[in-house]
Amino acid sequence: MELLCLGLNHRTAPVEVRERFAVSNNRLGEASHELLALADASEGVVISTCNRTEFYLAAHGAEEAFKRIEIRLTEKIQLDSSVANHFYRKAKTEAARHLCRVVSGLDSMMLGETEIFGQVKQAYHSALEAGATGTILNKVFQRAFGVGKKVRTETSIQEGSTSVGSVAVDLAEKIFGHLKNSEVMILGAGEMSRVTAQSLVSRGAKSIFVTNRSLDRAQELANEMGGTAIPFDDWQSVMERVDVVISSTGAPHAIVQRADVEKIRRARKYRPLFFIDIAVPRDIDPAVGEIEEVYLYDIDTLEQLAEEARGRRQLQIEQCERIIELELEKLNLPGT
Predict the structure, then answer these.
(1) Which is higher by pLDDT, 263 or 159?
(2) Whole-angstrom distance, CA of residue 244 vs CA of residue 186
(3) 191 is in which domain, residue-wise?
(4) Element of type H or E holding 258
(5) Are residues 192 and 97 in the same domain?
(6) Is there a single domain that holds both residue 71 and residue 183?
(7) pLDDT tens readout for residues 131-184
(8) DSSP alpha helices (H): ranges in 113-190?
(9) How far is Cα 318 from Cα 299, in angstroms, rounded to an integer?
(10) Residues labelled catalytic
(11) Are residues 141 and 281 in the same domain?
């Protein structure tokens, strides 16, 4: 029985490919259980975030297992087999090392990001509750969480703007000069939206409107941020007045279409409107960015800022890698 990882992320696949493989949080346990049959594996965990979808397995015969899951996955989501070129394949200690790097924020678009630790933990617990894990994956994931904690307490890898939400706000500030007189609308009230809202408040945004399909969740986030909750059906009317829209819902398709923005241009007197779409699948139709006074950035746009942060933190990366290697020596994986 070998530890295997098949995945794709922001480095290997564009957002239009990643969004086809995305799994919503409430389906992670179910997807992990489905993975067992899909790959003929005895254990499985599915991780899905805005930047990656990864399938961790305990299975016999790495080459055959990879081939099975690639064929069945592409058939399931009705994509051409060439999409397999976007996958990376890791086995045994290499797969464990990759998981440790992911949990530690070393493989993230924004180096050292803190959200990924909780996201992987949620994915693991969903698989655990679904009965999809066993001795091998339980051991590997628990070790990875220990590594993640050690990295954060013994290094400074997480310092600075490392979350996608914070970097999105950095980008908004660069476009507008400052956010103190800006009005902002947030579509979606999940963790990514909360982090983004915190960054907006810290930069002094004039007012924040929060909308979500569940009005109670929108109200909860708005109260926390000193903002205003609005019913989801009313977001178009509020868009007439705001300067920035940051979207991070769990919708399976685009919720903001070009026609929606065209309708409000006259009411806005054609003032600039800045969209940051940090959802996967994307919330905002790319055609919105074709409107003259509209600036649209999706999550892949943040890669340049991530690379800048990576250069500044090279020494911290080396320290983190040493911690990971020391912990991997203690793991004693079967088949290694």
Answers:
(1) 263
(2) 8
(3) 164-304
(4) helix 258-264
(5) no
(6) no
(7) 999 999 999 999 999 999 999 899 888 766 556 667 777 778 888 888 888 899
(8) 115-129, 135-154, 164-176
(9) 27
(10) 50
(11) no
